[in-house]
Structure formats: C-alpha cells, structure tokens
Amino acid sequence: xxxxxxxxxxxxxxxxxxxxxxxxxxxxxxxxxxxxxxxxxxxxxxxxxxxxxxxxxxxxxxxxxxxxxxxxxxxxxxxxxxxxxxxxxxxxxxxxxxxxxxxxxxxx
Length: 108
Fold this sequence. Notes:
This protein is of the alpha+beta class.
C-alpha cells in the first residue's frame, strides 16, 4: 500500500493506493496510455502526443474528478497510474486555476 498526497491550495489530502492496484493495474494503465496516444484536450489546448508529465497531469485531473464524485476506487486507480509512471512521486500539487498543465509533482 502506498500513499499519494494531494495538495489543493492550502488543503492536503492523501489517497491510499492498495498494493494490488500497483501489482495488477498495468493492463488498466496501458489502456489509459492507448487512449492518450490519440491526443488529449488539456484545458484550452489540444496535445497531439502527451508526454509522461502531461499524461500524469491528465491522470491528476481525472483523480480530482473521481474524488469530487466520491469514486474512491477510480481515485486509487488514477493515483496508482501516477505512482507507476513517475517513480518516486510522493505528492501532486493540483492547479486550481482551471489549467491542468499547471499541476506539478513532488518526488521523494
């Protein structure tokens, strides 16, 4: 089990990622990557080929949407994606200005 801390303005919240998500979630993560391979609307801009950082920003945006909807399972999957794709990440500083490209990641 791992924790991913979310920093939203002055609020801090942790999302628990069960070990099985990281151990067995790769097929789900690969489907996410395949979806993003077709490009993604990131706030006001279309990104034709999202890189690693952009993909994790997209996952962080989906993580926030899952939490807002009370979907803890999807939140854990999105947090798991971020942890799997950015080894050593400990926290996500969510941009709340409406521009997901401002979301930043904190490592170790």
